Each structure stands twice: as structure tokens, then as C-alpha cells.
């Protein structure tokens, strides 16, 4: 297991390098620079600014500097937010995104798993059709439709929750539901599929022949295998909820990393964009690793490969 | 000497079987018909309606749905119905084109990787794995921000994201096809590689391709929607459902129908496409029909 | 009183093509310590009959339409599920055909093995584990204590079937239902497993219902035989009588098509045609379309199972009427 984790960690290095390189050259190939929007800047000031941030050096030198610093954990200063480093900005805003992602995931699991299991227990009954139709709705109603509708109904009209900002628990509810709904729907479908698959297998018949109760068959025999598809989806799902939250953060005015990222892309804040992409990629790789380890732990057949 | 595998004979029974199964699946038929209807209405509707997308009339701005304007008007007094239909044309066009891009890349990549196998396959699949680790939504956003909100770039960017899964699935199919006698026979006969690939392999994975194309279209449309919602996708004066939903979302307090109508069209299309795609998958590949 | 008394068991499946009576009016008894062979081609209903007794027929689409199966004064076919569960896996156990898939791949061998004990007997885990190890040793698995911690994929097919047998016998059941337990195994391992079941049966005095399509196994393993065709019992009797005094053309045809039972050099017999589709059974004898002795009256009305010799019954009209001598 240790070897497995070590190898996977080493493999992550070239991946991160490729991502860093691609992003770096993409950002620098783009027309327009970080200071091109500030009209009052005289050519002289512009040159000073560029010199200050090292933008006057040859591209390859910049690339080398960027890599060298990134390896040492220094993602550089932000171009837009004076006197703030990229690391500080990420450190401030990521916990917000992470908390939002956590609540969303909690909602998704709390709804998706039971719904999927129930549907699989009574396939082709209303216990199956009802949750699965809702799940299909969940997959087809995009967050950017659900968000405004929830905000209007429960935030503005009913005033149960707040539809903007990030101060108290009242702010958390609506964005978390908006973000978690799709995942809940997807988890429900995966759970149903996985459970149906397992419940049709011979070893379930064996368990019944032993006199095991249906509850025991379900939770002791079927759940492990039935949840494998869900587990392998969890990595991408968590990653998507943390990195893909920019729509929800925009709708509900949440000061998370996603919103910062969009803003910094619009502002050509090179260092911030690069730093965020690298940070996101690391998180995705880390989550995929965690999910793989989980899978191996749950599925003994994978252990000896 | 012509030794082509009989793609007509066993093929036709496969396809008619599949058609039979598909028609039995009421949800799938419903989905297919709904998508066709929405497509037709979006295509033909604007020709019939007397308003044009660009007709502005501030005197009737922000009206609720009425006999004259079935879906009401927006804040510039444009007829929402015709805008929704026009937007639908664009959304569907993006869906189709970007799917075509991702299909082309995915099918070629997967076929080559699966057909040649060995080291090439290992390297190509490793690359796909690396690509999976990329924060893709973010890359599309970056592309759109930096390189202008260009219509063609939109297809390419989305297509470049969506081809990975397709490549993986096709590779798996090709790997198992390679084991079958008719491909081995074609290889033994010394048919040129491109001929084997294009005449024998690709036609045999068409079923899978069609299924995943149907399922890719909705996810592509969703991505286009996200980009347009963020102001990075389709740009005015053109509009798509994503753009309309974004406009509707900002005006939701005063004119909720401006969000509702495009949202209904958008979600209904995704809903139907997903049901149709699921049905197609069940029909063409009964083994994979579990979820 | 017999240990198990099955009467008029009929199990049907509702399919798109219509109602399929996979088991049709089957009656038999099982005595204590006896081995009953259930013989027939695939699709003859022998497995479904066993599943019906175990309450393992998926409902829907399956349905037990009629019949009783008395075990110790209790009807196995109509009773409340909790009551039946307390018998299943405790007093009646079953082993299945597919050793590769009938163990749960996600659970340790030991946990699966002692599960019947934990379900049915009030004992602590430690005692159960000790009994599990003893059970593994009994079926000839080396290093049993260590193997308890293994997973099924670390075992070969033969080893897994040994585990399955140990699991079925760990509660000392009175009846063991073995559904083609050796079909999926290599021939050498087949013999080992059969020998194992036989010796365990002797030492524990349990009754066995042995489902197979292999007449060779039947001939040296069973006391009595039930020959099934298209969901019905066509012949039943003591194993010697079945082989030496066949009373039904189907039984005779089956034996003629087995190489080991025929003189060397003689051409093997094949039964013409295929088993009938269960949705469109002929009105008369189901075997009539393939029978070499068929006459017109065979096709007209269903033929009941009647005793034609002492302790030996047949569902052949012509044998019953004394027109046909098959031995």
C-alpha cells in the first residue's frame, strides 16, 4: 500500500509539470497583459511595473523562474491585489470553497445513497420510479437555473435563508443545495445501478440460502460491492464540487476560490491564474489517489495486482 | 478477391433487434420524439412568428406572457418566444458541433490505441489518464477568457474536453473486436491497416459511438450553458439558452418568466436526450443497461 | 413419516411469452439419511424445484401456484418468512452449481463460513470461528486457521466448492440440497468433492437431494431417483430399478446416450429434437414429440404418474397399459 501511494505520488510530478507548462504558455500567448486595462499607466510606469514583476525578461527565463519558485512553494505576488501573494489569496478563499463543497457533498450523499438503495430494493415500483425521475431532473436542471430559482423562492420571497454573502449558516444552505443537487442525483443513479448489479449475483442467493434476513443481505453482503461505482465517482465529484463551484459562488456571491479564479482570469492576473490551476490540479490528483486507496481497501480483488 | 465480413446480414438483424427494443422503451421513445419536436420548433418557429429576434420596442418592455407575446417580452421589448427558439438553434448547434469534434478525436484516438496495442497503446492511454487529472472546466474558462469569445473556439474547447471518455470506450471495444475472427482474417489476408480500421473496425463500433454521442450532446450543451452564463460563451447579438437563462436570472425578481421559459426548454431538451440516450444504450448494448 | 413430503408442487414464471410452469405437479418424499437424485436436462425444472423448497424463487416473476412441502410438520411453501428463515441455512442447506460466484468476493472466507452460525445459533464469535476452522479442516482445507482470513479470489474452484460445502454443513442440517455441485469443476476434483459429500453425509446422517444431469453420478451416489422432463416427474424409483428396469422412454433414451453405460464400439444414441418450449407444451405427454415409441393416444391427454412396478412409478401411458417393455 505504501509503495502504491509512493508511486502514485511520484507519477503526479510529471502531470503537474505538464499542466504548469501548458497553462504558463497559454497565459502568455494570450493577447493583452495584466496591466493593459489600466488606462492611466504611462509607458514608463508600465515598464517599471513589468520590470517589478519580471515580465520584461525573456519568456523562457520567466518560465524557469516561475517553475523554480513554484517548486519552493512560492506562487508569487498577485498582479491585481497589491501586496498580496497568490498563496495568501488561495489560503483565504479556498477554505470557503472547501466548506461549500463539504456541505454540498454531505447533502448529496445523504440524499443520493438512500434514494438509490431504495430504488434498487424495489425495482420498477414507485419507490424506484419516483426517486429516479427526480434524479433525472437533478441531472438535467443545471445549477445556473436551480440557483436563481432557489435564491428567489427561499431567499428573497420566503426569506428562510440568505441568498447572498458568506457570514452565517443562513448563507450556506442555498448554495450547498444548489451545488449538491446534481451530485445527489448522480449518486442515486450510480447507487441504484451498482446495487441492482450486485443483488442479481449468485452470492446474494447464497446469503439468502443461509437464512440471512433481507436487511443483512442488503447491508452486510450487497452494500460493499454495490457502492464501488459510487466510490470511484466520489473523487471526480468532490473535485468538481470544489473546483467547479464558480457558477454557484457567482450566483450566491460567495467569496470562494472559484469566484477569485474567474475574476483573475478576466483581469489577466497571470500569477493568480497559474497558481490556482496548479492548486486545483494538485487537489484533483490528491482526491483521485484517496479514492483509489479507498477502492483497494473495499475491493479485496484489487489488492494483489 | 473480395472477402468483406458480411456487415449487412448480421448487422441488419442487430439493428432491427435494437430498434425493436428501443420502441418498446416508452421513456426513450418519448425522449426521442420530444427532442425532434423541440428541434423542429426551434428551426421552423422563427420563420412563422411575425417578430424577429432583433426587434426592439421599449414600449412593450418586460411584458408578461400574453396572446401577442406567448412568452412575454424582455427588458428591451424583444419577443421572448422567438429569442428562445433562436437561442435553441444555437444551443443545439453548439451541442452537435462540439460533440462531432469530440467524437472525431475520440473515435480516431481510441481506435488507433486499441488497434495497435502494445507500447503505443500504453503511452496513449497514459496520456488520457494525465488529461483526466486536469481541471478541465478551468481550462475551458481560460481558453475562452484569453482567446476571445470566439464561436469556433467554443466548439474546439468543449470538444477537446469531452473526447477522453469516448476514446476510452472505443479503445475497449476495438480491443475486444481485434480478438474476433473476421478482424484476424482481414489481418491474415494482408489488408492494409487503414482499410481494416476504416472498413472493419469503425463500422463495428458505430453503435457505441451513436449511444455516447447522444449522451455527450446534453453534457456539451450544459457546458456551453455554464460558459454563456458566465458571459464567456455565446456573445450578443447572438444568444443561446445559456445566455437567455443568464439574462433571466438577473431579472428574476421582476420578470421570472424570462428565466422560466428558456430554462424549461433547456432542461426538457437535456431530459429527453438523456432518456433517449439511455434507451439507445439499453437497446444496442443490453449488457450495459444496469444504471 | 418421511423427513420431507412434497406434494403437487407447481412453480410458474410470468414471462412476456406467457406463463411458464417450470415445475409442474411434482410430488416426492425424502427419508432421513437418504440420497435422492433429481435427474433431467437443463430446463427440466430440477433446480427450480429446489429453489422453491428453499424459498429462493424470485417473486415476481416467479410464483408458487400450488402444492405443499411438509418438513417436520411445517409447510415450507406457505409460511411466514421469519419462520422459514430460521429453517433455511440451519436445518436445510443448499449448495450451488457455481463455486466461482457463489461466495461473496468482498468478504473473508471465515466471515462467510461462520455466518450461518451467527445467524442461527446463539454463540459468540470466538466459538464460531473455532467451529469454522474445524469445518474447513473437515472438508480437507490445509492451514485452515490462516485460510479463514483469505478472500474467495485466492482460492481455486475446487477449494471454493469445499468452502461452500463446509458452509452448508456447519449448522449440521438435516437436509442438504446440492444443485449440480460438481458440474463446473474438473473431473478429478469432481470425484473428490463427491466423495467428500458422501463421507460427510454418512458421518452426519443427513438426507441429500442431489440435482444433476449426470447419470453416472446418480448410479453410484443415489438411493432413489426422480427423472424430470419439461417440469414434470416422468419416472421415479430405486436407483437399481431406474437403471435396470426403465419404465419411461425418456429415462431409457437418456441412458442410451451415455458412453460409459454402452458397450464399446456401439454407436451412441441421440434423442431426436429438443426439449419443448415450456410456453407451448403439447396437450399429451410432453416427451411425445421426441419419443420413438409414440402412438396417437400419447398426444391426447396428460399422463399421470402411476406405480407400474412395486416402488417404481412412470408417466408413460403405454408402459402403464402394459403395451411397452423397455428393459
The general outline of chain A is: flat
Strand-residue fraction of chain C? 15-25%
**Total of helices of chain C:** 12
Q: Work out the number of β strands of chain C.
A: 12
String of helices and strands of chain A: HHHHHHHHHHHHH
Average of per-residue pLDDT values of chain A: 81
Order of helices and strands of chain C: EEEHEEHEHHHHHEHEHEEHHEEH
* pLDDT < 50 runs, ≥5 residues of chain A: none
How large is the count of helical segments of chain A? 13
Taking all Cα atoms into account, the compactness measure Rg of chain C is: 21 Å
Reported for the largest beta sheet of chain A, the result is:
none
**What structural class do the secondary elements of chain C suggest?**
alpha/beta
Helix content class of chain A: over 70%
Largest β sheet strand count, sense and barrel closure of chain C: 8 strands, mixed
- Regarding quaternary structure, how should these chains be classified? heterotrimer
Shape of chain C: globular
The greatest interface between two protein chains, and residues involved on each side, is:
A-B, 54 and 40 residues
Provide a descriptive summary of the structure in words.
The complex is a heterotrimer of chains A (305), B (291) and C (327). Chain A has 305 residues and is mainly α. Chain A is built from 13 helices and no strands. The radius of gyration of chain A is 24 Å and the shape is flat. In chain A, 44% of the residues are buried. The model of chain A has no long low-confidence stretch (mean pLDDT 81). Chain B has 291 residues and is mainly alpha-helical. Chain B is built from 10 helices and no strands. Chain B has helices spanning 9-24, 26-48, 80-116, 118-132, 136-146, 151-178, 181-188, 193-229, 241-250, 257-284. Chain B is elongated and about 75 Å long. In chain B, 45% of the residues are buried. Chain C has helices at residues 46-54, 81-87, 109-113, 115-120, 125-138, 144-147, 157-169, 187-204, 215-219, 239-244, 249-256, 317-320; strands spanning 4-15, 18-30, 35-39, 62-71, 74-75, 92-95, 175-179, 207-212, 224-229, 232-238, 306-309, 312-314. Chain C is built from 12 helices and 12 strands. In chain C, strands 6-7-8-3-9-10-12-11 form an 8-stranded mixed β-sheet, with helices on both faces. In chain C, α7 packs parallel to α8 (187-204). With 327 residues, chain C is α/β, with parallel strands linked by helices. The radius of gyration of chain C is 21 Å and the shape is globular. At the A-B interface, α1, α5, α6, α7 and α10 of A face α5, α8, α9 and α10 of B.
Amino acid at each position: 500500500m505504501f509503495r502504491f501511494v509512493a508511486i502514485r505520488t511520484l507519477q503526479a510530478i510529471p502531470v503537474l509539470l505538464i499542466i504548469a507548462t501548458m497553462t504558463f504558455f497559454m497565459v502568455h500567448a494570450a493577447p493583452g497583459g495584466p496591466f493593459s486595462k489600466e488606462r492611466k499607466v504611462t509607458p514608463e510606469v508600465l515598464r517599471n511595473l513589468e520590470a517589478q514583476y519580471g515580465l520584461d525578461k525573456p519568456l523562457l527565463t520567466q518560465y524557469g523562474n516561475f517553475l523554480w519558485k513554484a517548486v519552493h512553494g512560492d506562487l508569487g505576488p498577485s498582479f491585481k491585489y497589491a501586496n498580496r501573494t497568490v498563496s495568501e489569496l488561495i489560503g483565504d478563499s479556498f477554505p470557503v470553497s472547501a466548506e461549500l463543497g463539504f456541505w454540498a457533498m454531505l447533502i448529496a450523499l445523504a440524499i443520493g445513497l438512500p434514494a438509490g438503495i431504495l430504488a434498487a430494493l424495489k425495482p420498477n415500483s414507485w419507490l424506484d420510479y419516483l426517486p429516479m425521475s427526480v434524479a433525472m431532473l437533478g441531472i438535467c436542471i443545471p445549477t445556473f437555473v436551480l440557483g436563481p430559482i432557489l435564491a428567489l423562492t427561499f431567499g428573497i420571497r420566503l426569506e428562510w435563508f440568505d441568498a447572498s454573502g458568506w457570514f452565517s449558516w443562513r448563507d450556506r444552505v442555498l448554495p450547498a443545495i444548489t451545488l449538491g443537487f446534481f451530485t445527489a442525483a448522480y449518486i442515486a443513479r450510480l447507487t441504484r445501478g451498482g446495487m441492482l448489479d450486485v443483488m442479481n449475483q449468485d452470492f446474494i442467493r447464497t446469503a439468502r440460502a443461509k437464512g440471512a434476513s433481507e436487511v443483512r443481505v442488503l447491508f452486510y453482503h450487497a452494500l460493499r460491492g454495490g457502492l464501488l461505482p459510487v466510490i470511484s465517482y466520489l473523487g471526480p465529484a468532490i473535485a468538481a464540487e470544489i473546483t467547479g463551484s464558480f457558477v454557484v459562488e457567482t450566483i450566491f456571491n460567495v467569496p470562494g476560490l472559484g469566484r477569485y479564479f474567474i475574476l483573475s482570469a478576466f483581469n489577466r492576473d497571470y500569477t493568480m491564474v497559474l497558481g490556482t490551476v496548479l492548486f486545483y490540479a494538485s487537489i484533483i490528483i490528491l482526491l483521485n489517489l484517496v479514492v483509489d486507496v479507498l477502492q483497494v481497501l473495499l475491493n479485496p480483488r484489487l489488492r494483489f495486482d | 478477391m473480395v472477402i468483406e465480413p458480411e456487415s449487412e446480414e448480421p448487422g441488419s438483424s442487430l439493428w432491427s433487434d435494437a430498434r425493436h427494443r428501443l420502441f418498446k422503451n416508452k421513456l426513450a421513445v418519448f425522449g426521442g420524439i420530444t427532442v425532434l419536436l423541440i428541434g423542429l420548433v426551434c428551426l421552423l418557429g422563427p420563420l412563422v412568428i411575425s417578430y424577429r429576434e432583433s426587434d426592439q420596442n421599449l414600449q412593450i418592455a418586460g411584458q408578461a406572457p400574453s396572446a401577442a407575446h406567448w412568452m412575454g417580452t424582455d427588458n428591451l421589448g424583444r419577443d421572448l418566444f422567438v429569442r428562445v427558439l433562436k437561442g435553441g438553434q444555437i444551443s443545439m448547434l453548439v451541442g452537435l458541433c462540439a460533440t462531432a469534434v469530440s467524437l472525431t478525436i475520440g473515435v480516431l484516438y481510441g481506435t488507433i490505441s486499441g488497434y495497435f496495442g502494445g507500447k503505443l497503446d500504453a503511452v496513449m492511454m497514459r496520456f488520457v489518464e494525465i488529461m483526466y487529472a486536469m481541471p478541465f472546466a478551468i481550462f475551458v474558462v481560460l481558453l475562452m477568457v484569453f482567446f476571445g469569445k470566439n464561436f469556433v473556439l467554443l466548439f474546439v474547447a468543449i470538444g477537446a474536453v469531452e473526447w477522453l471518455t469516448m476514446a476510452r470506450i472505443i479503445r475497449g471495444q476495438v480491443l475486444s473486436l481485434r480478438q474476433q475472427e473476421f478482424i484476424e482474417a482481414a489481418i491474415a489476408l494482408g489488408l492494409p491497416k487503414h482499410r481494416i480500421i476504416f472498413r472493419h473496425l469503425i463500422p463495428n463500433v458505430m453503435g457505441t459511438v451513436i449511444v455516447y454521442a447522444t449522451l455527450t450532446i446534453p453534457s456539451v450543451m450544459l457546458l456551453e450553458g455554464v460558459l454563456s452564463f458566465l458571459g464567456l460563451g455565446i456573445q450578443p447579438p447572438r444568444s443561446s439558452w445559456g445566455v437567455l437563462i443568464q439574462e433571466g436570472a438577473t431579472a428574476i425578481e421582476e420578470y421570472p418568466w424570462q428565466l422560466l421559459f428558456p430554462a424549461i426548454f433547456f432542461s426538457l431538451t437535456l431530459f429527453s436526450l438523456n432518456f433517449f440516450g439511455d434507451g439507445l444504450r439499453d437497446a444496442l448494448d443490453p449488457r450495459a443497461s444496469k444504471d | 413419516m418421511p423427513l420431507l413430503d412434497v406434494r403437487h408442487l407447481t412453480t410458474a414464471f410470468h414471462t412476456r411469452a406467457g406463463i411458464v410452469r417450470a415445475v409442474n405437479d411434482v410430488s416426492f418424499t425424502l427419508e432421513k439419511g437418504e440420497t435422492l437424485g433429481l435427474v433431467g436436462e437443463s430446463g427440466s425444472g430440477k433446480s427450480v424445484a429446489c429453489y422453491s423448497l428453499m424459498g429462493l424463487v424470485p417473486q415476481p416473476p416467479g410464483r408458487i401456484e400450488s402444492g405443499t412441502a411438509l418438513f417436520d410438520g411445517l409447510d415450507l411453501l406457505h409460511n411466514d418468512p421469519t419462520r422459514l428463515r430460521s429453517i433455511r441455512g440451519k436445518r436445510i442447506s443448499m449448495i450451488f452449481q457455481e463455486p466461482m460466484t457463489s461466495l461473496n468476493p468482498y468478504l473473508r472466507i471465515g466471515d462467510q463460513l461462520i455466518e450461518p452460525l451467527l445467524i442461527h445459533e446463539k454463540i459468540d464469535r470466538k466459538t464460531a470461528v473455532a467451529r469454522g476452522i474445524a469445518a474447513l479442516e473437515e472438508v480437507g482445507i490445509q492451514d485452515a486457521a490462516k485460510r479463514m482470513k483469505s478472500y474467495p479470489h485466492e482460492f481455486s474452484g475446487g477449494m471454493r466448492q469445499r468452502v461452500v460445502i463446509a458452509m452448508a454443513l456447519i449448522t449440521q442440517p438435516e437436509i442438504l440440497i446440492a444443485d449440480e455441485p460438481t458440474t463446473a469443476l474438473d473431473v478429478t476434483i469432481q470425484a473428490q468433492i463427491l466423495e467428500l459429500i458422501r463421507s460427510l453425509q454418512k458421518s452426519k446422517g443427513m438426507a441429500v437431494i442431489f440435482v444433476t444431469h449426470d447419470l453416472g453420478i446418480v448410479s453410484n451416489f443415489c438411493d432413489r431417483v426422480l427423472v424430470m422432463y419439461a417440469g414434470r416427474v416422468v419416472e421415479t424409483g430405486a436407483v437399481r430399478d431406474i437403471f435396470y428396469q426403465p419404465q419411461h422412454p425418456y429415462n431409457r433414451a437418456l441412458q442410451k446416450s451415455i458412453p460409459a453405460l454402452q458397450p464399446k464400439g456401439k454407436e451412441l444414441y441421440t434423442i431426436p429434437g429438443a426439449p419443448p418450449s415450456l410456453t407451448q407444451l403439447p396437450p399429451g405427454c410432453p416427451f411425445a414429440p421426441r419419443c420413438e415409441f409414440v402412438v396417437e393416444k400419447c398426444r391426447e391427454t396428460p399422463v399421470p404418474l402411476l406405480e407400474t412396478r412395486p416402488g417404481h412409478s412412470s408417466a408413460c401411458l403405454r408402459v402403464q397399459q402394459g403395451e411397452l417393455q423397455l428393459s
